[in-house]
Design a protein that fits this description.
The longest helix has 21 residues, at about 170-190. It is globular, with a radius of gyration of 17 Å. About 45% of the residues lie in helices and about 20% in strands. It is built from ten helices and seven strands. The chain is of the alpha/beta class. Strand 1, helix 5 and strand 2 form a beta-alpha-beta unit. It has a single domain (about 25-210), classed as 3-Layer(aba) Sandwich (Rossmann fold). Helix 8 (about 135-145) runs parallel beside helix 10 (about 170-190) and helix 9 runs antiparallel to helix 10 (about 170-190). It binds S-adenosylmethionine (SAM). S-adenosylmethionine binds near residues 28 and 127. S-adenosylmethionine binds near residues 21, 54, 76 and 110.
Length: about 220
């Protein structure tokens, strides 16, 4: 309980200091974490998992429970405060410690992250609605380069958030959100394999699961 409260307080503090990149007032619920990691549940190891934008570890907690002895996990987080929270967790929390020798927290933007070996599963928690459309395209290209041909990329977006934000945005903001819609729909149309609806989250969210498969 104490850990959960601390997590929410840290998240809210980062939301106020770095709204653009934090993008949410609270960590994801366990229902959203479960939907994001659904493809990993069925895996036969060994697999490589990449989590992008883990924040305080709301989804990481679920990932570490699903890892088998030969699996590996990389986490890429931009915000140094969240990186500290995560590193402490891998040192102190028994669930995280179980996989600490196979998990690495990288502090950098995902656009700058490089790996020689691709990933079977990528779980992405980035707040795309706050980003310029060219950056979102760049990030998706990076993520697809990091994915194996049969790998699954899972990410979430808050339900109906773009139309709602358009109502309170100026014309430049509305244009950005419309362009963003085009980019995201293009990836969903070309690569989407499944969409989950998660109502028990603040706010409710859709989870998109994508695969490389050619158009
Ligand atoms: C909406 S929060 C999600 C946190 C967590 N995954 C959850 O579901 O509770 C977005 C996270 O992405 C991180 N982030 C934003 N831009 C990033 C980037 N370009 N590269 C890596 N992490 C980024 C933020 O610092 C933040 O931790």
């Amino acid at each position: 309980m104490k850990r959960l409260v601390g997590e929410h307080v840290e998240f809210l503090r980062q939301y106020r200091q770095r709204f653009e990149t934090t993008g949410a007032i609270a960590p994801s619920s366990r229902f959203l974490a479960r939907a994001l990691t659904r493809p990993i549940e069925r895996h036969r190891g060994p697999v490589r998992v990449l989590e992008v934008g883990p924040g305080t570890g709301a989804v990481t907690r679920r990932i570490v429970r699903l890892l088998k002895p030969d699996d590996a996990l990389d986490l890429v987080e931009l915000n140094p405060s969240f990186v500290n929270v995560l590193r402490r967790r891998f040192a102190d929390d028994p669930h995280y410690r179980r996989v600490a020798d196979r998990a690495t927290v990288h502090q950098c933007p995902i656009q700058e992250f490089r790996s020689d070996v691709p990933y079977d599963y990528i779980v992405c928690g980035l707040p795309f609605n706050n980003f310029p459309p060219p950056l979102v395209r760049e990030i998706f290209e990076v993520l697809f380069r990091l994915l194996t041909p049969t790998g699954v990329l899972s990410y979430f977006e808050y339900m109906y958030m773009r139309p709602l934000r358009k109502l309170v945005s100026n014309s430049a903001g509305r244009r950005r959100l419309s362009e963003l819609e085009v980019v995201l729909q293009e990836y969903q149309r070309t690569h989407g394999i499944l969409r989950d609806w998660v109502f028990v989250n603040l706010p409710p969210a859709w989870v998109h699961h994508l695969q490389v498969r050619d158009a």
